[in-house]
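Listing S7. Sequence submitted for prediction.
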Amino acid sequence: MTDRLFVFGCSFTKFHWPTYADILAKDHKKFYNWGRSGAGNFFIFNSIVECNKRNTITADDTVCVMWSSIAREDRFVKNKWLLSGSIYSQHIYDQEFVTKFSDPTGYLLRDLSLISAAKALLDNIGCKYYFFSIVPFDCYEDMFERWFNIDYKILSLYKTELAVIKPSVYQAVFNQDWHSRPGYRDLKNLEKNYYECAGPDWPNTWQEFLTLYETNQIGPFEEEILDQYFFRKKLIRTDYHPTPLEHLEYLQKVLPEVSHSDQTLQWVSDMDADVIAQKKCQWAKGELVERF
């Protein structure tokens, strides 16, 4: 059993149910989870540096970083982090800001530099560390063609850093298709489901709904209705976050050298059953960090 485990990331690291981080924590004496929902790579890098300042990471510790998607804006404002998730589907920054300041190539350049700096810091400490990612850094146009036009030549400058990052969750678990796992109905059935669930305040047609959704014109209230009545009633799964068993599958695929006890495997299975049954899960969440 090793000493301390420090983990960093977004909601794929710290969520409403156990993640890969909670699974790995079973084999460590102390567990510090710095993950935050909606976090981007700027926040993740800042967390690594701050954590090292607060805890003095040593060569006896283990660090895991789940790098997030690139198109995120992280800001520390009025003594708290604003973590909006994707700049293209959030409600903190208005459309004028997005149009004027968002630049996918700039986000990629920024995040690759941060990953390089994080690697240099951890190499200097001499600790064991693992770099993961939600999605690969060269696939954004395939996933979001209508949003991105990225200059990928920058990737060639960071071959050393990219080589350290394990295959992404998107690749290893979802086979490069978020709807590939059990529980998602075929997308062709969503139109039928829409008409079954749509209320009086909803767009009149499925196509009108799609247009509003794809142009980011559906506000928070409508999204809440969408989640509650459209997806939750008609789809077993409501988002792309891996279930506990899928997090375990990810670890087994990208870290086959790390074994898990029978007790841990049973715990993950029990947590997964609770998630599927939509029960509230209880598990070790790591240290609660109070800033300043």
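Caption to Listing S7: primary sequence and predicted structure tokens for the chain studied. Confidence is low (pLDDT under 50) at residues 231-236, 281-292. The chain is about 40% helix and 15% strand.
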